[in-house]
Amino acid sequence: MGRVSGVLICIEGIDGCGKTTHARRLVRSIRKMGFKVVYTTEPTDGLYGRIIKQRILDADEGIQDAVVALLFAVDRLDHLEKEIKPLLRKGMIVICDRYLHSSIAYQGAAGLDIEWVRTINRYAVAPDLAVYIDVFPEIGLKRIAGGRRLKSSMESLENLEAVRAIYHRLVESNELISIDGTAPFEVVAERILKAVREYLTERRQHGP
Ligand code: TYD
């Protein structure tokens, strides 16, 4: 597969949980430790990511949920081929702001069969570590409402509660590591860094 020594770490959570700020902070912290690290995000700024942003997230044109799920899966595969896999082959640490579990949680919350969502994402490599930042939907909504208009139905309270419930199930099945995102920023940042450090140490000792 040519993964060699690269590491794929994903940061997940509901809208307004602070994952983008934390992902960027994590990149700086890991870089200071001497690792080669790159920040990237989904949806991407590539062809399919732009379609998602313009036609679904910004405009909410009422595209059916299964089509939305397929578009996210396409964007992800393109992201993997063009960006993530080449970086992993070079041995880099890739910090991805949203990835596979966003599709499971959000498209699952929209009512799609989660097994089907996993199936259409079958060729998306599994992340080495997936960190989930947990906040109450009310907190997430308050944070994003302060910054900008709510963009789509994905960001309603009821929907974010459903998204969070699925994330919690993924935590229970150990697919995600949960960090309490309601603690002070520095505390959350430190806990995320600790989880990543522990993973990197473990991997150095025992391999991927
Ligand atoms: P987000 O990271 O919140 O972007 P921004 O903070 O720049 O607005 O992601 C945009 C939305 O896309 C978010 O509501 C979650 C949704 N999403 C999915 O529904 N499925 C996916 O697979 C991904 C990657 C995102």
Overview of the molecule:
By secondary structure, the protein is α/β, with parallel strands linked by helices. The chain has a single domain, classed as Rossmann fold (3-Layer(aba) Sandwich), CATH 3.40.50. The chain is built from 8 helices and 5 strands, in the order E-H-E-H-H-E-H-H-E-H-H-E-H. It has helices at 19-32, 47-57, 65-89, 100-109, 114-120, 137-147, 157-172, 185-206; strands at 7-12, 37-41, 93-97, 129-134, 177-180. The longest helix has 25 residues, at 65-89. It is globular and about 45 Å long. The site of thymidine-5'-diphosphate has 13 residues, from helix 4.
The geometry reads as globular
* Fold-level CATH name: Rossmann fold
Hetero groups bound? Answer: thymidine-5'-diphosphate
Strand order, sheet with most strands: 2-3-1-4-5
Give the proportion of residues in helices: 55-70%
List segments where confidence is low: pLDDT < 50 over at least 5 consecutive residues. Answer: none
What characterizes the major β-sheet? 5 strands, parallel
Q: Let me know the number of strands.
A: 5
Strand content: 5-15%
CATH superfamily placement: P-loop containing nucleotide triphosphate hydrolases
Mean pLDDT, rounded to whole units? 92
For the record, the CATH class is Alpha Beta
Task: Supply the CATH architecture.
Answer: 3-Layer(aba) Sandwich
| Count of the domains | 1
User: Rg, please?
Assistant: 16 Å
